[in-house]
Amino acid sequence: MPDQTPRRIVVTGVGANPGLGLARSLLRLGHRVVAVDANPLAPGFFLGDVSPYVVPLAEDPDYPEAIVGLCRALAVDAIVAGIESDLSPLLGLRPRLEADGIRLWLPDDESVYDCIDKARFHQVLTEHGIPTPRTWDPEEFDRVPSGVELVVKPRGGHGAQGVHMVTSRRHARVLCELVPAAIVQERVYGTEFTADCLVDRDGQASVILRRRDLVKAGCVAVSTTFEDQAVRDLIVKTLQAVRAQGLCCVQGFITDNGVTITELNVRVAGGFALTEAAGADLVDQMVRGLFGQPVDHDQLTYRTGVFLTNYLETLRVGDVAELEVAAAPKGATA
């Protein structure tokens, strides 16, 4: 059953699919959602019943005080990040937020950085014997074999932003000059998947598998739930290797040579609505764990063969001058 206690929860990054979908699911469960984003036209601001607030970008020096001030002014119960860029400042704020009774459910700092830094993630997986694409820093370019298709991406990127597929080392070398803090990876082909995962405080993990049948600009457009024990086992091993906790998602490929893990995001996935449609009570169990209650893994089972089709949706058209989105207060008290 859904958690019966309404909570006031901040969801960050409601301009992208993960944060928007999370806000929508929390509203459906009866919680009060404070939606925050740096863009006053973020789609999540136009969901019914959210309290929308504009905050500075995560890298802005005013971001910490804006978040703390907003949480105090609204007597917020918890914060859930919907986008990777908010994770680093939230980690820095964790002592202040927890002192105010505001809950975060994130792994330890080192674990989070092992996931959001793609070079570190490759190193951790390699040390634990988990198959993952070969990865090189630009300074190691002479070690990149010829005749291999490559991916150039930001070391700390997200949402497929700045990702380039190339077929030659020459093109990859040029892109390394253009992509900030770039890394180079071997391109992998096969059946792409996402696993929606919830890891409780005792380390027990529930894993819901979804094929990424059609992907557009990094976002899943068509997806289907499935079951594969080899994939499941490798995902659990990956979660253990990075000491994951709380809500996260793992991506990878099923290839002719086995299973390869490509990334782990310390946030909800953009296509998690399929997981809930297939019967897994993902967000409500996350809220239970967030507030120190036991996660009921029996509520995280799911049906295979359930599909989801996504499309771009126009949420609102209107006059910018009539927008009613408040800026987050700074240094406010409850």
Task: Describe the main β-sheet briefly.
Answer: 6 strands, antiparallel
What form results from the Cα inertia axes? Answer: globular
The H-and-E topology, N to C, reads as EHEEHEHHHEEEHEEEEHEEHHEE
Share of β-strand residues: 25-35%
- Integer-rounded radius of gyration: 20 Å
Major sheet: arrangement of strands: 13-12-9-10-11-14
CATH H level, superfamily name of the largest domain: ATP-grasp fold, B domain
> How many E strands?
15
How many separate domains? 3
Q: What percentage of residues falls in helices of 4 or more residues?
A: 25-40%
Terminal Cα span? 32 Å
Mean pLDDT equals 91
Determine the number of helices (DSSP H or I, runs of at least 4 residues): 9
CATH top-level class of the largest domain = Alpha Beta
Low-confidence stretches: none
Seen as an oligomer or otherwise, the chain set is single chain
Specify the CATH architecture of the largest domain: 2-Layer Sandwich
The chain-level structural class is alpha/beta
The fold-level CATH name of the largest domain is: D-amino Acid Aminotransferase, Chain A, domain 1
